Amino acid sequence: MDLFVRECGPSSGPPLVLLHGGRLSGWSWGPVVERLPRYRCLIPDLPQFGKSAGQGPFGIVTAADAVAELISARADSAHVVGYSLGAQVGVQLLATRPGLVNRAVLCGGIINAGVAARPAKVLAGRCARAAWFRRMISRRLARRDAPIFASGADDYRADLALGSDAGLAHIVMASVGFTRPVGLGRSPVHAMFVSGAKETSVVRRCAAVLAESMPNGRHCVATNMGHGWPLRNPALFAETVDGWLSDVALPVAIRPARDGPGRRRGRSRR
C-alpha cells in the first residue's frame, strides 16, 4: 500500500515514524515535529485519511502492514510514536513486525478486553452510520479541537470533508473492535505507554495492560493532562518522546504509573 508520507529533518538523523490520531492526518504532528529537529521524521497519512484517503477502507492490521512497508522501504528500522488511533496501529506493529521498531512511545490507545468485543464493534459501526451520532461527534470534537488547530484550520476542514458515513464506520469499528494482538507479549521493543492523568480510567487501564504485556513495556502518566495532550502540549510531548528514544531522563511531568513499570508477576505472554 502506497501511503502519502511527509518527510522532514536531516536525512542522517534517527528515523522516526509518527502515527496520527482519528479524524486527522499527518499534518497535525507539525508543532511536535518542529521540536524534534535532530530526527528524520516520516509522517504518513494512514489509510482513508488525508492524502491517503483513496487507500481505504481503514483497518488496524492493514494500516500496520502499510507502516511496516514504509519503514522497510525508507529505513532498516525506526522509532515509532503513535497517538490514539495511531497508538493502536503502533501496538499492532509491535506485535507483528517488532524487528522494524527500535523504541516506541504510544499515547491514548485502547484495547477491547471484553468478551463482547465483536458485538461492540458492530454496534459502534451502526452508531457511526447514524446521522445524529455523526453530528454529535462532530460538534463535540469541533469544540475540543478549536484551540489546537486554529493555525491549521484549512487542513482540519479538508480532513473533515473527506469523511463519509461509511468511512467513519470503518474507522470506529476498527478502533472499538481492536483487541490485544497475539504476539505482543513476545515483542522485545522498549515501549512506553503514556496516558493522561485526566483521561478516562478505561484509557489508563489499557495503557497498564499493554505495558504489562511486554517484557520491556512501561506505563507512565502525564500529570494534569487529558486525552489530547500530545497535540495541546507539543513541547512537553516532544521532550517526552526525545527523552524515551534517547534513553535519558523524562520530563518531571511524566511519572511512572502507580501500577509500576510493567514488570509485575503474572503478566500474559501472548
Note down, in words, how this protein is organized.
- With 270 residues, the chain is of the alpha/beta class.
- It has a domain of 186 residues: Alpha/Beta hydrolase fold, catalytic domain (Rossmann fold, 3-Layer(aba) Sandwich).
- It is built from 10 helices and 8 strands.
- An 8-stranded mixed beta sheet has the order 1-3-2-4-5-6-7-8, sandwiched between helices.
- Helix 2 packs across helix 3 and helix 4 runs antiparallel to helix 7.
- The longest helix has 15 residues.
- The two termini are 28 Å apart.
Brief overview, please?
The protein has a domain at 5-111 and 178-256: Alpha/Beta hydrolase fold, catalytic domain (Rossmann fold, 3-Layer(aba) Sandwich), CATH 3.40.50.
CATH class of the domain at 5-111 and 178-256: Alpha Beta
The CATH H-level homologous superfamily of the domain at 5-111 and 178-256: Alpha/Beta hydrolase fold, catalytic domain
Judging by the overall fold, what is the CATH architecture of the domain at 5-111 and 178-256?
A: 3-Layer(aba) Sandwich
**What is the fold named in CATH at topology level of the domain at 5-111 and 178-256?**
Rossmann fold
Name the shape in a single word.
globular
> What is the subunit organization of this protein?
single chain
Strand order of the largest sheet: 1-3-2-4-5-6-7-8
Tell me the radius of gyration. 17 Å
Keywords: Hydrolase
GO cellular component, one term: membrane
Organism: Mycolicibacterium iranicum (Mycobacterium iranicum)
GO molecular function, one term: hydrolase activity
